[in-house]
Amino acid sequence: MPELPENEAQRRLLERECLNRTIESVELGDDTSYIELPGDNERKRLVGRQFTETRRHGKNVFAGSKTGPWMTVHLGMTGQLIPFDEPADPPDYTKLLIRFEGNRALAFRCPRKLGHVRVIDDPDEYIAKEGLGPDALAIDRDTFLETFGKTKSAIKAALMSQEKLAGIGNLWSDEILFETGLNPQCRANELSKDTLGELYDAMQSILETVVSKDADYEKLPDDWLVRGRDEGSDCPRCDGTIVTAKVGGRTAYFCDKHQE
DNA sequence: TGGGTTGTTCGTAC
DNA sequence: CGTACGAACAACCC
């Protein structure tokens, strides 16, 4: 589920389904060893309150109110927020269950336990403390050019670095570089200002498009990498082949021809 | 069976 | 300091 567009879709879901309802209980699910979830006292802080607004910064979703407290959710690799109406059972792998007035409930599902939920006082303070860079859809062009013009790491690793830019991960960094025709291994500071500008434009347009489709990949054009991101398959843009390489600790998928 | 995964963190090294 | 790498975390999928 987990990069900027997927998290934005989750934020919208919370906005639609879970706002302005008094929280009656916040309970832990089954098998909560290892995963970080709010403790007894933190969960109690939410009871009796309402979420009246939501926010998102990079891959972090927030729900809270002017006076706080706030809940912040990180989905990890396989986390999901699932609103539902009781008495239906919560989904498998529910790690946290919030019950609202009426019969509305919200499950935080996290099979691989790589996500977390925290209760915090203030999102801005939290974002600063976590050292997150500007959100990838909010960063302005000049800041982007400045940051990337002086980083020596591989461009893909730089795009995925949450301290530089919050919200891009393995999947969408591949798509952005595919669109721009850049090799994921090239050094960020060796790119011209014009090329970095093209990269910025591709990033904005790709993220906006995926957000506009609520991160439903079926609705994306057939010539996007994400639609056929398999090693050895034909490039949908040229007569190249999709190949892989390890970059920034992750597997990069790219075209061996139009991305050099 | 072994290897891979839309994520992060930590130790280590240069 | 900035950067790079492997391992770890956990469970599922092929």
From TrEMBL:
Which UniProt keywords are listed? DNA damage, DNA repair, DNA-binding, Glycosidase, Hydrolase, Lyase, Metal-binding, Multifunctional enzyme, Zinc
Iron as a keyword of this entry, yes or no, is no
Q: Which reaction does it catalyse?
A: Hydrolysis of DNA containing ring-opened 7-methylguanine residues, releasing 2,6-diamino-4-hydroxy-5-(N-methyl)formamidopyrimidine
> Which cofactors is this protein said to need?
Zn(2+)
Q: Could you tell me which PROSITE patterns the record lists for this protein?
A: FPG_CAT
The Formamidopyrimidine-DNA glycosylase catalytic domain covers which part of the protein? 2-115
GO annotation, biological process: base-excision repair
What GO annotations for molecular function exist for this entry?
damaged DNA binding; DNA-(apurinic or apyrimidinic site) endonuclease activity; lyase activity; oxidized purine nucleobase lesion DNA N-glycosylase activity; zinc ion binding
Instruction: Give yes or no: UniProt keyword NADP.
Output: no
Q: List, alphabetically, the Pfam families matched.
A: Fapy_DNA_glyco, H2TH, zf-FPG_IleRS
What InterPro entries does the record tag this protein with? FPG_cat, FPG_N, H2TH_FPG, Ribosomal_uS13-like_H2TH, Znf_FPG/IleRS
Which family does the record assign? Belongs to the FPG family.
Q: What is this protein called?
A: DNA-formamidopyrimidine glycosylase
State the organism named in the record.
Parapontixanthobacter aurantiacus
